[in-house]
Every structure is written in structure tokens, then in C-alpha cells.
UniProtKB/TrEMBL annotation:
Stored Gene3D superfamilies: P-loop containing nucleotide triphosphate hydrolases (3.40.50.300)
Domain ABC transporter: 5-245
Residues spanning the membrane: none
Domain of life (superkingdom): Bacteria
Example GO molecular function: ATP binding
Protein name per its UniProtKB record: ATP-binding cassette domain-containing protein
Signal peptide: none
Sorted UniProt keywords: ATP-binding, Nucleotide-binding
Pfam family, one: ABC_tran
UniProt cross-references to InterPro entries, sorted A to Z: AAA+_ATPase (IPR003593), ABC_carbohydrate_import_ATPase (IPR050107), ABC_transporter-like_ATP-bd (IPR003439), P-loop_NTPase (IPR027417)
Amino acid sequence: MAPIVELRAVGKSYGNIHALRDVDLAVHAGRVSCVLGDNGAGKSTLIKIISGLHRHTTGELLVDGEPARFSTPRDALDRGIATVYQDLATVTLMPVWRNFFLGSELTRGRWPFQRLDIPRMRSVADAELRAMGIVLDDVDQPVGSLSGGQRQSVAIARAVHFGARVLILDEPTAALGVKQSGVVLRYVAAARERGLGVVFITHNPHHAYLVGDHFTVLRLGTVELSADRADVDLDHLTHQMAGGAELDELRHELTGDSAP
Ligand SMILES: Nc1ncnc2c1ncn2[C@@H]1O[C@H](COP(=O)(O)OP(=O)(O)O)[C@@H](O)[C@H]1O
Ligand SMILES: [Mg+2]
């Protein structure tokens, strides 16, 4: 089956800074593709290209096997590619159901007598959250009263409800503790079970390995490792993320020991 989204030898430069060079990535339905890398590795640049925020300068972007070119994030969204950013655009005083439908409110009646269909938005939001296994005390509670993990989860459920086929998550667990990260990782797995292709950006190999089907490690804009789960173990992934060969050299310099 063709990947939903594919990057082939994609490069991106900002002036004379090469943020990405020759990057390949495939996003398949029902699979979690993890993108790992240190600060400045090019992770955000990569997802900005897939989500229509930035244009790549070389290489190809394919959607459903056909070359695609996005001018705006709306174009990506129209193809079912939804992005959940780390700094979620949520209005903290708004009830959960209102936030769920923000910008796509349900109405009833005909123009000019349209009114918000509050009961339906409440019940749909409640049902969708439950379908993802997210149980809140009350969908009327303000978003600000949710934990960080719950907020990410609501954003994921929202993307699924509005028809996302690909879900891009930019470091969703970076600011969270262990328990809250677990909450988010469960919804990453739930999104995969619902058949979405997930791109999970993180610099935590442990989080990646809990849910990942494929791993791409970026370093200074190039692919350092691209491997299916069957071909890489957590130790190797952790070592790559920690700096790989560079770490070995540093160990040698500081301790006189050679690589283990
Ligand atoms: N808008 C921009 N203009 C110029 N350089 C940028 C811009 N965005 C990112 N870069 C550069 O591209 C490289 C990759 O950045 P980024 O994609 O944000 O990495 P990461 O998300 O992995 O930390 C960095 O060297 C960064 O300074
Ligand atoms: Mg980033």
C-alpha cells in the first residue's frame, strides 16, 4: 500500500542554512513513524513541510502516491494532514466542548436565524472523547482545568473527529512528567488503532520506542538512522540519540575508556 505521505530526498534551506538535506520519510496508515533528533536537527522544519507551513527547496512531497505542493496549512488539512503543536492554541477559560469545535462550530436553524447547536456539540465532543478512551468529569469544565496530557489528548481526539488521516505531533510529551506522558502515549496508540498514520516528534527514545513502528533519527538536517522496529532496539536508539560516535569520542577523551 502506498504511504499516505512520503518525502523523497527532501531538502530545505533558509538562505544559506541547510536545515534539511536528502531526507526520506514515509507515513503509513495505522503506523507510528517517530522522528528523533537533538535541538537544531531539523525536526520542526520537517513537520512544517508536511503540514504546509513551509515549502521544501529540493526533493519531492507525495500524498497518496501523487506529487503534492501545499501553499498553506489549509491545503494540508484538506488532504487530512492535521498537526498538533506543542503550545496548543487552546483558550483556557473555554469549556472543553467549545474548544473541541473551535472554528468549526455546529449550528442549527437557517440563516439569518442560525444559532450554535450547543447540546449537539456537547454530546458529540463527549462521545468522541469517550471513543478515544478519554473520560472527563464534565465536557463543560474549562480547558484550563485539564492536565497537560489531557489537553494534548483532547487535541488528538479533535483531529481524529475532523477527519485527519495523518496526525503530526510535535514533541507532545516534552513538557510532561512520566504519568502525563503515559496519557499522551496511550492516545498516540489509540490514533494508530483507528487507522491514522502518526508522525511522532520527540527527543525521548524511551517514549518513541513505546509506540513507534519506524524510527528516523535526524542529525544536523540529515538522516542518521532510518529503521523499522524489528531492526533496532532501544539501546541502539538511545545511543544514536545521545550522539552515537560523537559520544564514544567524548567518553574516550574524558575517561580514557574506549567504546563499551
Ligand atoms: N525560519 C528559519 N530561518 C532560518 N533558520 C531556521 C529557521 N527555522 C529553523 N532554522 C534553522 O534550521 C535548523 C533546524 O531547525 P529546526 O527544524 O527548528 O530543528 P529542531 O526542531 O530539530 O530543533 C536550525 O539550524 C535552525 O536554526
Ligand atoms: Mg523543534
